[in-house]
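Look at one record.

>
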Amino acid sequence: MTSSIKTVDPSENEFLASLEARGKHANLFFRVLANRPEALKTFVPFYGAVMGPGSVERRTKELVYLTCSYTNHCAFCTAAHTAAGQKAGITEQEMQSLQAGTDVGFSAPELAAIRYARELTGTAAAATTRDALATHFNDEQMVELTLVAATANWTNRFNNGLGILP
């Protein structure tokens, strides 16, 4: 675990200490984010609301997160979400397909979400893929998928910008 910026020691931040105790390991992302304690405190429940149970299947959320992370070349998020993606049922071959941009082996709804996430990451608009997404997902689900992609892009840029590596 490396970073080009100061990391906060859990002994200096009770909330960080409790997060790491629950996770049973050091988390470099949290340790850097803890430089702004209120940001860390508000990020954790927000992230839980976005990535936790909702109207979109966990597998699809992880496909979106990984798509954004591969597109942005975020090593930290890719490492974290590879493990989460595997738990959600994404195979190694599917991950390789996502990373290569070939998108082979996915259902039509998954493809729509992947393509939307990739375009949103590249253009911040997704004008050409939004309609395809709407054929497979309702408004609540589209908002949820957009939140996943936006959160992935935020964490990708935070990690890449500050040189946070797994």
